[in-house]
């Protein structure tokens, strides 16, 4: 039970940290009216939204949103950072190049999800790997895969040497 209370506390701190995104005040009113923690209402809302998105568009829509929403937010944040282009901008530009490469590959081979078991779960894991700051996956995939196929077709001066 102590573990659950610890998780509830962490989620409550997250809600308080981002009040406009998490509708903190609305959940606080629900908490006051019912006596149940706002974390439970927030969790229920997240589950309902997830199920709604899943029913509307399936796993493809979920992985597409996973690959777009957070990276787009972080890209805008890095572009608007004080001083213009930040170090994070390079990471997100690399992410978008790799994400575009994966999306293009999906378009060229439309039956990937049929032939690869658990395709969308694997794609979700790949997307998280690509943009997670501890892995720098986009840079790894770019340097090991994408760059080898695209660079020979570009006339790039002053670029990185192989």
Walk me through this protein's architecture.
By secondary structure, the protein is mainly alpha-helical. The protein has helices spanning about 1-15, 20, 25-35, 40-80, 85-110, 110-115, 120-130, 135-150.
Secondary structure layout:
Blueprint: H1 2-17, H2 19-22, H3 24-34, H4 38-79, H5 87-108, H6 112-115, H7 119-131, H8 137-150
Mean pLDDT rating: 86
SS-based structural class?
mainly alpha
Helices and strands, in order, run as: HHHHHHHH
Which regions are unreliable across 5 or more consecutive residues at pLDDT < 50?
A: none
- Number of β-strand runs: 0
Envelope shape: globular
What portion of the residues fall into strands of 2 or more residues?
Answer: under 5%
Helix residue percentage: over 70%
The termini sit apart by 55 Å
Radius of gyration: 20 Å
The number of helical runs is 8
**Main sheet summary:** none
